[in-house]
Amino acid sequence: MSAQRIPWQEKLQEQCRALQAPPPIYKEYSDRRGGRTAWTVHVHIGPVLFAKATYWYDGKCADKAKDDAAENMLKRLNGAPTMQAIVKQEQEMLMQQQQAQQQQHQHQAIKMEQVRSAW
Question: What domain range includes position 15?
Answer without folding.
Answer: 8-118
